[in-house]
């Protein structure tokens, strides 16, 4: 692919479009509906626009140079940076600014003071080129004061530019009405509502026989704010984005494509005159709101009305075209397994269609163990993607016949969106002034992760259900288990002191959103938990230092667990083990009663790990809504997501998804005792510290007990490699050649970081050089159907680490945190014992995989050098 065009500086925070056409990449549909990734994850949203990896498509707008009308703006010195404006897909971006003023949150009928409003629009204003047409903006769906499209006012307060959208009342009993119409995009791209198709226009105004604008009434009335195009459940607008005492702030913004909003149509494929295909562009508009509206001393009118709208700044958003353009009629090939590879496959897919061995691929995300077991047979199967070797007991205990090719390095992340709610008395005036602004840093230990996974905080259990088993009897006898992680003294001790001044409560900060189903990701997270003696002891039933106990239904101790059987960890899923239930009260209390609420109803699963990241971007804690007794059958609804300023949610996700949605991520304590966030550098440091798994020298793992991991101070503890896995003895030679082509591309051209077609999306770290060597060798073995027998077995020289931790067998001791003032621990070094030969003698059906095993120890060394080089370069760049 040497002739493929590359941009000199690829945009950093974007990711190639998650495919949604013709069913290509089945496992990515959820991500397409939601979003995708950043090259370096960050614990500070503003860093997306200011860090070393600043995207080349970031744009800074100022009131002075870019406002439609600068004079009279509430923030004359405003400078807004949009982290990404090109190569967009369904994803998150960051809008950060300086030059604002200290904000106050919305309250009652007042929309707040000194804040920004942000919306996505699809059409350009023909009378003001370079600015969006306000009729095309998705705005009004939040139903908040100062955020509707329409409202009433005095005729004398109506700006001239709003008169076409205003019914001037001549009656004292009927106030003047202004409503900005909404025009949805259509194939012709017509903005003017008079020419646009009637079913794509929402307006409450018409012109009477006398030529006057009048308001529609009766059956002709439409709701401009809740309609068939957007509602409070679907809109992506930000109605209030506040600044701190210095007038600066930042907020994540969900960029929607035609998949999420057909009314906007962003990214819809448009064929140019030269035959090329581009995505339909859109606009991002930022509207400054001060302390009052025209004719009002408060903010209680629409930001689309001219007195606010005239001061907006806006930037054009360029989208990648939706869909994958593979040759029509090409045979689709099946892939199966790890969700961690989904973003990369979507990015590589357009290039993988090319050539004699190219093909469109369909990734079915699911349990990796099942996928690799199927790939171990000799009958044709989907190419498996896994982070763990085959459990040979599934094939009768024979030697593992699978060849493993490393194709990606990513990991698990814990994303969060939590806005400040300071205590009205205990918090300082400075802390109270930051109310509504986001918390941007969280440190977590394995035991804190265990608490989030085990429904052990009081608010994680349904209201109305008995919580006595975790110590809670009543409000006056709450027991020693905190309501949420925010009130946990262990959490407060290792995080910013400002956390202890917050009064944030609720189910969405008492647990972590997680998907159902089995996965290597779940296993890895539980292994991280039980690698820590304190977490393991707590799960066994020992209270923590403050008296908090594990929910006994999750205890690993059979004498504590009410089932009489301890929870066997690590698990490959996230069980809702507590049977606590709020009883059905529809009969006993027909007016106010509700149906039963169990743990699954109370805290629903997400659809996938990527979906967890999407929930965090939107501030959606997946909270149970009100009981609708009039529905047939009666049922619970879903609560509307929390808007910026009052968000509070934790979720499990992947590093590519967290980067795609540009969510804030937690720093996790690694075995060296350091709190490390997932970044490209920390993932590379983890790879450098990995050793071969005991059962198969071809597969590397981050062994929490190994000396190399304990010395890896900068490593991220939930880094995970992804391997393409297949038995090279499978009978379909053509299919094997296609899979080999995918592996070669993934390991070589596909490791170039960037957002162009075929590049490695943000959220992944490039493979160490020796891993690439291993992948190439594996591709050769798969394509030719087995080894030539000229290379020694892969296990002969590969280092191995100790057995993986088990709650039953006991976990290894964790490294103590580094002492204050002590010298920094050494960077990762290659360690481990030489593995013996795998059980069983060679047979004609056992493939000799050539140099694959030798690539593991070499990969550790080369990976280490690469990690050091990356860190050195980044340090030099920061100095300059």
TrEMBL record:
Annotated segments matching region Disordered? 784-812
Q: Does the keyword Transmembrane apply?
A: yes
Q: Where is the composition biased (Low complexity)?
A: 789-812
Asked if Transmembrane is a keyword of the record, the answer is yes
Per UniProt, the keywords (alphabetical) are: Membrane, Transmembrane, Transmembrane helix
Indicate the transmembrane segments per the record.
Answer: 852-873
Protein name (record) = PBP domain-containing protein
């Amino acid at each position: 692919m040497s002739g493929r065009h590359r941009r000199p500086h690829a945009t950093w925070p974007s990711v190639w479009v998650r495919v949604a056409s013709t069913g290509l990449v089945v496992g990515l549909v959820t991500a397409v509906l939601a979003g995708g990734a950043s090259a370096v994850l960050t614990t500070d949203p503003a860093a997306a626009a200011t860090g070393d990896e600043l995207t080349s498509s970031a744009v800074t707008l100022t009131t002075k140079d870019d406002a439609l009308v600068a004079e009279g703006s509430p923030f004359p010195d405003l400078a807004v940076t949009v982290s990404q404006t090109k190569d967009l897909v369904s994803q998150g971006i960051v809008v950060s600014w300086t030059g604002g003023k200290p904000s106050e949150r919305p309250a009652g009928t007042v929309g707040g003071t000194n804040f920004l409003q942000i919306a996505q629009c699809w059409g350009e204003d023909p009378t003001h080129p370079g600015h969006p047409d306000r009729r095309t903006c998705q705005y009004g769906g939040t139903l908040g004061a100062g955020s509707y499209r329409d409202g009433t006012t005095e005729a004398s307060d109506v700006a001239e530019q709003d008169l076409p959208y205003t019914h001037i009342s001549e009656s004292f009993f009927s106030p003047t009405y202004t409503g900005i119409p909404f025009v949805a995009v259509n194939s012709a791209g017509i903005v003017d509502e008079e020419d646009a198709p009637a079913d794509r226009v929402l307006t409450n105004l018409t012109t009477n026989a006398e030529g006057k604008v009048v308001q529609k009434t009766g059956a002709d009335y439409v709701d401009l704010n809740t309609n068939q195009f957007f509602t409070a459940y679907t809109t992506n607008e930000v109605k209030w984005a506040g600044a701190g005492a210095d007038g600066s702030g930042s907020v994540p913004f969900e960029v929607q494509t035609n998949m999420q909003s057909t009314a906007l149509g962003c990214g819809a494929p448009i064929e140019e005159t030269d035959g090329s295909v581009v995505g339909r562009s859109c606009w991002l508009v930022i509207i400054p709101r001060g302390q009052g509206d025209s004719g009002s001393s408060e903010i209680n009118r629409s930001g689309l009305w001219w007195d606010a709208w005239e001061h907006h700044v806006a930037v054009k958003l360029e989208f990648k075209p939706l869909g994958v353009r593979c040759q029509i009629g090409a045979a689709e090939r099946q892939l199966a397994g790890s969700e961690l590879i989904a973003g990369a496959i979507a990015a590589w897919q357009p290039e993988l269609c090319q050539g004699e061995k190219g093909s469109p691929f369909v990734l079915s995300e699911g349990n990796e163990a099942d996928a690799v077991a199927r790939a171990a047979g000799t009958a044709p199967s989907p190419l498996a993607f896994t982070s763990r070797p085959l459990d040979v007991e599934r094939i009768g205990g024979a030697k593992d016949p699978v060849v493993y090719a490393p194709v990606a390095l990513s990991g698990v992340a814990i994303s969060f969106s939590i806005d400040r709610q300071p205590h009205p008395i205990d918090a300082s005036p400075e802390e109270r002034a930051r109310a509504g602004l986001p918390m941007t840093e969280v440190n977590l230990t394995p035991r804190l992760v265990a608490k989030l996974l085990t429904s052990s905080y009081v608010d994680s259990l349904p209201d109305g259900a008995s919580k006595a088993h975790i110590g809670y009897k009543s409000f006056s006898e709450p027991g020693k288990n905190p309501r949420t992680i925010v009130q946990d003294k262990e959490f407060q001790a290792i995080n910013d002191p400002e956390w202890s001044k917050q009064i944030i409560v609720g189910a969405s900060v008492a647990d972590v959103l997680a998907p159902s189903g089995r996965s290597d990701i779940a296993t890895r997270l539980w292994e991280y938990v039980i690698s820590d003696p304190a977490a393991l002891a707590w799960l066994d039933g020992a209270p923590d230092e403050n008296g908090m106990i594990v929910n006994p239904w999750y205890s690993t101790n059979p004498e504590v667990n009410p089932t009489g059987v301890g929870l066997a960890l690590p698990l490959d899923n996230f069980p809702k083990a507590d049977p606590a239930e709020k009883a059905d009260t529809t009969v006993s209390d027909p007016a106010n009663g509700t149906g039963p609420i169990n743990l699954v109803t109370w805290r629903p699963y997400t659809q996938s790990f990527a979906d967890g990241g999407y929930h965090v971007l939107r501030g959606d804690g997946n909270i149970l809504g009100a009981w609708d007794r009039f529905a047939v059958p009666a049922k619970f609804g879903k609560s509307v997501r929390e808007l910026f300023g009052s968000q509070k949610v934790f979720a499990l996700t992947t590093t590519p998804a967290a980067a795609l949605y540009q969510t804030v991520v937690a720093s996790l304590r690694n075995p060296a005792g350091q709190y490390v966030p997932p970044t490209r550098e920390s993932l590379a440091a983890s790879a450098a510290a990995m050793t071969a798994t005991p059962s198969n020298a071809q597969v590397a793992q981050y062994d929490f007990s190994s000396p190399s991991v304990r010395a890896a101070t900068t490593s991220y503890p939930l880094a995970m490699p992804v391997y393409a896995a297949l038995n090279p003895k499978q009978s379909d030679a053509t299919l094997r050649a296609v899979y080999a082509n995918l592996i070669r591309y993934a390991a070589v051209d596909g490791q170039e970081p960037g957002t162009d077609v075929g590049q490695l999306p943000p959220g992944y770290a490039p493979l160490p050089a020796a891993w690439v060597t291993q992948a190439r060798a594996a591709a050769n073995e798969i394509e030719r159907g087995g080894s030539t027998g000229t290379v020694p077995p892969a296990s002969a020289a590969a280092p191995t680490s100790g057995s993986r931790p088990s709650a039953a067998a006991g976990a290894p001791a964790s490294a103590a945190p580094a002492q204050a003032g002590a010298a920094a621990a050494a960077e990762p070094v290659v360690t481990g014992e030489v593995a013996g030969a795998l059980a069983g003698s060679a047979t004609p059906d056992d493939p000799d995989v050539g140099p694959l095993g030798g690539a593991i120890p070499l990969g550790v060394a080369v990976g280490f050098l690469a990690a050091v080089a990356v860190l050195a370069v980044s340090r030099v760049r920061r100095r300059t």
